[in-house]
């Protein structure tokens, strides 16, 4: 007898299998990168450790760098999503500040709380440093697009890009400071205290120009 369960169950199992395969590849790659250094590990090494074909690895991760930096989508869309989900009466600046401080309190790896071993793996590889720079650039573009949508700005309006440059720039600065302190041996609590102070200075510096920008209607 035909039922919806007969179609949804196989689909659900396939999705689960894909997610498990992706996670296994990512976990094995991270282990190897931390043990040997990113530049000393090949796609073939990762495939062998994950017990899959090389093509399977590249199907899930087209670029080797993305095996190490596998939170690309979350990172790139983080600021844009915060703006889209801001509360009524809340400006983009206020929403981003609130979200950032919450991430600091949670020691969120997405904002740089990655631990010294992982941070060192990134900074020791020119390829990973370059890829991370691309992520920051893509995040700024995604934020600019979200601000344009939320404010109804025409295509030739530069204001969303100006705001995104400032707001994403603060997040990039704070990310780099978090990484710097991590590599210097500070623990997460000390780092959180420091970047919270820096965030206060940084966001307050933008208040005169952005405090009333992109406020969600009540």
Automatic annotation (TrEMBL):
The lineage of its organism: Bacteria, Bacillati, Actinomycetota, Actinomycetes, Micromonosporales. Pfam families: TetR_C_14, TetR_N. Keywords: DNA-binding, Transcription, Transcription regulation. GO terms for molecular function: DNA-binding transcription factor activity; transcription cis-regulatory region binding. Residues 42-61 bind DNA. InterPro entries: Homeodomain-like_sf, HTH-type_TetR-like_transc_reg, HTH_TetR, MftR_C. This is DNA-binding transcriptional regulator, AcrR family. The keyword Glycoprotein does not apply. Residues 19-79 form the HTH tetR-type domain. It comes from Micromonospora viridifaciens.
């Amino acid at each position: 007898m035909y039922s919806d369960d007969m179609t949804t169950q196989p689909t659900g199992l396939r999705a689960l299998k894909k997610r498990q395969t992706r996670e296994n590849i990512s976990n094995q790659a991270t282990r190897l990168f931390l043990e040997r250094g990113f530049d000393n590990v090949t796609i073939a090494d990762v495939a062998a450790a994950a017990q899959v074909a090389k093509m399977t690895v590249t199907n899930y991760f087209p670029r080797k760098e993305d095996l190490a930096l596998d939170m690309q989508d979350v990172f790139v869309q983080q600021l844009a999503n915060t703006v889209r989900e801001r509360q009524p009466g809340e400006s983009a600046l206020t929403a981003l500040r609130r979200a950032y401080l919450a991430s600091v309190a949670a020691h969120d790896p997405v904002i740089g709380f990655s631990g010294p071993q992982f941070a060192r793996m990134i900074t020791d590889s020119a390829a990973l440093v370059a890829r991370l720079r691309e992520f920051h650039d893509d995040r700024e573009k995604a934020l600019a697009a979200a601000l344009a949508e939320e404010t109804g700005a025409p295509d030739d309006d530069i204001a969303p890009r100006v705001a995104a440059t400032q707001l994403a720039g603060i997040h990039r600065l704070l990310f780099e400071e978090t990484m710097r302190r991590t590599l210097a041996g500070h623990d997460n609590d000390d780092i959180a205290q420091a970047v919270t102070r820096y965030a206060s200075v940084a966001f307050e510096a933008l208040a005169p120009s952005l405090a009333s920008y992109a406020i969600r209607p009540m």
